[in-house]
Amino acid sequence: MKDVNFLKEKNARSLWHPMAHPADSLAHPPTIVTGATGVRIRDVDGHEVVDAVGGLWNVNLGYSCQAIKDAIAQQLDALPYYSIFRGTSNDQVIQLAEELRDFFEPDGLSRAFYTSGGSDSVETALRLARQYHKIRGEAGRVKYLSLKKGYHGTHFGGASVNGNANFRTAYEPLLAGCHHIPAPYTYRNPFDESDPGKLAQLCLSALEDEIAFQGPGSIAAFIMEPILGAGGVIPPDKSFMPGVREICSRHGILLIADEVITAFGRTGSWTGSRHWGVQPDLMCTAKAITNGYFPFGALMISEEIAQVFERDETGKAAIGHGYTYSGHPVGAAAALACLSETLALDVPTNAAARGAELHAGLLDLQSQHEVVGDVRGGHGLMCALELVEDRRAKTAVDKARIGKVQEAAYAAGAMVRVSGSNIILSPPLVLTSRDVQAILSALDAGLGAI
Questions:
Q1: Domains in the chain, ordered, with CATH?
Q2: 302, 362, 283, 246: which is closest to 122 by C-alpha?
Q3: Per-residue model confidence (pLDDT) at position 352
């Protein structure tokens, strides 16, 4: 490795960082992370902190999962790469598909289409949803519905169904036929409704209204996160996703569950859909499928949809879609080892317990710091603080101030993520009560610094 002075001098000089203004990265050089152990990361200066971001929602098992590292190393020796495009396969993807079939059986999902990551999984779901309807003779079903505040990656399809202007405005015009309904976001919504149950019904009514306006026969799919993540950790009322499922079923609209974040235990349940008692038609996964150790994802497909494709005799079901790294053998080996470890550790149980502890601690911080306008969480290890300048007016906090919170929290022992006026927490699912307290203590220091 180059010496510390070289790294600091060249930091952000020759590369552009995702989700950042290039000039800002030059003016405020990013933290240089050079090591990690357990649930902690170390920077180039040797400063060690609890990673309350969990990599990027994906390092569920922490940084010291040797079984996954060994699986990757062994597969690199055996078969470092081969395509699974028509005519070839490999042993790892076949084994993984069987394991995923068993894991997702309670969700009604029985086939896997491999991808390189979450945005790819979303793109695949959107494409196959349209193709499904064409196979069935309903070629007019081409539109998509989604939630405002939802996040579905950065491909043109995903950006088009995204519900946050930050990921859309600079890249418009986007895909035509994408329409949004209000999210069940109790802190800010157009209905001025703070009761979760009532708000859920208002949002469901808005969905019904939009379907009627667009015409049910024109809509291919509704895509949603069971709990909105990047949009600010927005958990809906327990009635919401079941309500969406019923409406979609009644109108012949496919339900795509974007579980790139929520699958594999994050919510305190094995999947976010299972958390709400819903079986989707398609489920997007990635991130924790390999614990972040290798770029890999899978779109999971229901038996009903699979039968429509597999029984087709017209040729319309031929899939003209895929990626060079779909079914990468090293990624599949990593996923097999990761799934085994995830099941053995029963991570949802710890996620639920530690998540409840973290959420309670955040509510306590809200009572101590006026800048905390809203606390969201209560469903596993995904929580957020929304910071405001004025609680009554709910005016968003200044960007410079929330940046100071992040800096002070990092200095005090925890890496947290800032997104707009939100501080988002998504730590590894294997963290301990002591780690939770370290995060809360660091946040207390950060909030106290502004």
A1: 31-64+347-448 (3.90.1150.10), 68-345 (3.40.640.10)
A2: 283
A3: 98
